[in-house]
Amino acid sequence: MAEGGGGDSSQEKTEQPTPRKLEKAREDGQIPRSRDLTTTAILLAGTVGLALFGPAIGKSFTALAANNFSLSHDEAFDTSAMVANLASSFYEGLLALAPLLIILLIASIAGPIGLGGWMLSAKAMAPKFSRLSPLAGLKRMFSVKSLVELGKSIGKVAVVMLTAIAALYFWERELLSLGLLDIERGIIESLTINAYAAIALAAVTIAIAMIDVPFQLWDHNKKLKMSFQEVKDEHKDTEGKPEVKGRIRQLQREMSQRRMMANVPEADVIITNPTHYAVALKYDPQTMQTPILLAKGVDHIALKIREIGKAHNVEIVEAKVLARAIYHTTEENGEVPEGLYMAVAQVLAYVFGLRNYRRGRGDRPQYPQHLTVPPDMRFD
Prior knowledge:
Layout lengths: L18 H9 L7 H34 L4 H4 L2 H35 L8 H4 L8 H8 L2 H27 L1 H5 L6 H42 L3 H12 L2 H22 L5 E4 L4 E6 L9 E7 L1 H12 L3 E4 L1 H10 L11 H18 L22
Parallel strand pairs: 1-4
Antiparallel strand pairs: 1-2, 2-3
Helix pairs in contact: 2-4, 2-9, 7-9
């Protein structure tokens, strides 16, 4: 609710968290986690491990027990021999349990990342001295959330305990008869009972996880919900204020225009409308396959292009249809489109011929009367 009871609906957490909010929460270590999912993964992995490797583990421990219970009198009273035997027994037992332990290790890692994914946050691992406050600790211990978590834990323990009691009651006869079996058969039988008991417990934890996982996702999303004002503020911080963005675009346009104007003196010809449009072209037969548009503009920018061209003795010719066609179809520093090759070639031939005439090389060329501009490139 809005603070102060003012009824400001903009402060209510009604909006879904934005991608930026979710990313920031992840950076801070706030991701959904389910302890019950981890417990279920470990129990299932243990069950599978016992089913796959239980007989082999039983045989290994049977041989290990037989070896330790058949020591000679001299070995039993030899300290160095007993230490060596203990080390050897520990190694063999660990080797027998290794496949099961590896499966449990994988499950203990896969369980937490199954919900929320892998996360390594330095901020989350950093020490928080506020947690050392006894008063803050008492508040957390007796908060509503802590009481709810306590109730959930008691309920889960009760369910698992009832399942364990039911399993003990169901296998009561088998458990009591283990003492009557030989060592090898007793170990194998006990591992079988453990496997079935683990399956029963895993089934219970699966049911609990199926309830807890959706709840954790819902609770995580609820904690990250945003007010309408927070969404607006984040959008401003991410995208920038409109006036700042407008100023940036204006500066970018001005920089682009300055770069464009700096290229005008290098042009071979400026084609005009004659007043509203102006385009500056360059063509070097030795290095270019097609003419390049160095600058273009309308109105005052077109006037500026013409002024710079006059100051640097760039030839200016009038071709209304061609000037508009080039302006609308060609980007700055881009190649003239194929449909305008003929018309541009006619203009450039006239300009290059006029340049040679002024140098005393040939007759004065005639300006082309009819320029070939395709109908689909005419912009009236």
